[in-house]
Amino acid sequence: MEKIGLFYASTTGNTETVAEQIAGLIGGEAVDLHDLAVDPVSSINDYERLIFGISTWDYGELQEDWDAIWEELKQLDFSGRRVALFGLGDQIGYGEWFVDAMGLLAELLQERGAELVAPWSAEGYEFEESKALTEDRSQFVGLAIDEDAQSGETSERVERWVPEVLAAFDI
C-alpha cells in the first residue's frame, strides 16, 4: 500500500499533537509523519495522498514554518493528488480569522491542481469569519480544531474525520 504523507508545522506543539493523533489512528505502517520545520518541502513529492496540518496565527497569518516554505510550496505540482487538511485556530480570540491559514493553503493547493477531500461541517463552532469555509459556507475545507476554546472536542472530531479521509483516499 502506498503510504500517506502527513506534513505539519507547529509552534506551540498543538498542531504536532493533532498530527500525531491522526497518524496514530491511521496506523504507523500507512503514514509517514513530517515536520516541515525539519523535513524538506521536496519530500512532499514522494506521496500521492497527503494530509497537511496548519495553524493560523494572530490576524489570519501563516504559522512561521509554513510562511518560510510558502514560495517553495507554490512551485510544486499537486495534479492528481488527493489532499486532506486540518487547521488549528482560536475562534474566540481571533474569530474574524478562524483557521484562515487552512483556507489560504487550500487555495494554493487547488491552484496547483490538488483534489481536496474530507471537508468538515461548520456546525458547532462560533466565529465571525473564516477563509477556510467552502463556497456555500456550510463546511470548512478540512478539519477545524480549536485547542483554545474547544480542546475537549478535539479527540472526537479527529476520530470522526480520519475515517472520512481514509475513505476519500480509497484506503
TrEMBL record:
State if Chloroplast is listed as a keyword. Answer: no
- GO molecular function terms listed in the Swiss-Prot or TrEMBL record: electron transfer activity; FMN binding
Domain Flavodoxin-like per the UniProt entry, residue ranges: 4-166
Q: Which UniProt keywords apply?
A: Electron transport, Flavoprotein, FMN, Nitrogen fixation, Transport
Reply yes or no: does the keyword Transport apply.
yes
Q: Which domain of life is it from?
A: Bacteria
Q: Which cofactor does it need?
A: FMN
Family under the similarity heading: Belongs to the flavodoxin family.
What job does the chain carry out? Low-potential electron donor to a number of redox enzymes.
Q: Which NCBIfam families match?
A: flav_long, PRK09267.1-5, PRK12359.1
Name listed for the protein in its UniProt record: Flavodoxin
